[in-house]
Amino acid sequence: PPDPSSMKISTLGGNINENSGGLRGLKYGVTRDYVLGLEVVLPNGDIIKTGGKLAKDVAGYDMTRLFVGSEGTLGIVTEAVLKLLPLPETKQTMLCLYESLEEAATSVSAIIAERIIPATLEFMDQPTLEVVEDFANIGLPTDVQAVLLIEQDGNPEAVSRDIQKIAEVCEQHGAKSVKIAHSEEEASALLTARRSALSALARLSPTTILEDATVPRSEIANMVRAIEDIARKYEVNICTFGHAGDGNLHPTCATDARNEEEMKRVEAAFQAIFEKAVALGGTITGEHGVGLMKAPYLELKVKKEGIAAMKAIKQALDPENIMNPDKVFGKASRKRVVVS
Ligand SMILES: Cc1cc2nc3c(=O)[nH]c(=O)nc-3n(C[C@H](O)[C@H](O)[C@H](O)COP(=O)(O)OP(=O)(O)OC[C@H]3O[C@@H](n4cnc5c(N)ncnc54)[C@H](O)[C@@H]3O)c2cc1C
Asked: Which of the listed residues 65, 189, 247, 274 has the most CB atoms within 10 Å of its CB?
C-alpha cells in the first residue's frame, strides 16, 4: 500500500531506508507499517535477522523499526518480510474546488470528524494547479485557490456511501464545486496529475527544491498561510501541495542554484518554514528523511539530547562511520546539494 510518488523508480531498499509514504498514507500508513522483518548486513560484516512473520514476537528490542527509516546509516538491508493486503474491491475519486485555503483545510478535518478515513486526501494550491495543468493538460481548474483530491476504496456499498457523505461535507464547508470521476481513466488522470506535481514544477526553473514540512492536520491552513507569508517576505517563488490528510505539505521552491544571493533568501525562507512547522507541533520531514539537506535542521525537531541518543546508536553499530557518513548528522548546507 505505501505508494511514494517515486514508485516507478524507487527500490524496496530505498523505500525501507527512507520509510517512504505516499498518497495513501492517511488510511494505509507508511512503509514502516508493512515491514515485519529484515535481514541486515551490519558495518562489521555480521548478518542479523530482525522480526519475521510471527504476529506476536517481542524478543528483545524492536530492531526492525530501528532500521526502517535509518537512511542507510546503520546497515545494508538485504532481505525484507513485507505485509501484503488484498486489493480493495473498488475505488472512487473526486475533486473538490475551493475559493479559500481555510475552507479546504476545514473540510479535511470535517471529513475525518465524520469518521471517514479516505484512502487519499491530497491538497494543491492555486500556483501548483496552474503549473500541473500546463504540464498534464487534463482540464484542472486554475482559477480556484485550492483543490482537494479525494479517493476512497473498499467494498462498493461503503465507497459510494463515503463518497456521497464526503461530497456533502465538502459542500457544507465551502467547496464551490465537487466533481466525481466517472471512469477509471478520469480518476487515474487526476491521480497521475497530482503525482506529477514535482516534475511539472521542475520545468519552471533550473533548480527545484521540494520540502516536506509536516504539521498536525488541524494546522494545515495556518501552515499554508505561513508559507505564503514567508515566500513573500523573502521574495521567493514557492508552490505548495501535499498530503492534506497527513498534514504532510510539500512547499516547493523554483529557484536557481547559480544565483547566490537568491539562494541565501531561499535558505532563510526554508529555515523559517521548518521553525514554523515545529512551532505548530509538526516536523521538518514527513517522508523524505533528513539526508544531507535537512541535517542542519534536525536539532529543531529532536533537540540536542535526541541527536546525542541517535549518535550513540550510530557509534555503537558503525564505529568507523563507513555507512552514509555525512547523512542525518552532517552540518553541510543544503546549498551544496540542491536538486536540479
Ligand atoms: C520524483 C520523486 C518523487 C518522490 N516522491 C516521494 C513520495 O511521494 N514519498 C516519499 O516518501 N518519498 C518520495 N521521494 C523520495 C524517494 O524517492 C523515496 O523516499 C524512495 O523510497 C527512495 O528510494 P530509492 O530506491 O530511490 O532510494 P535511494 O535514493 O537510492 O536511496 C535512499 C537512501 O536509502 C539508502 N539505501 C538504499 N537501499 C538500501 C539498502 N538496501 N540498505 C540500506 N540502505 C539503503 C541509500 O544509501 C540512501 O541513503 C521522491 C523522490 C523523487 C525523485
From this structure: 247
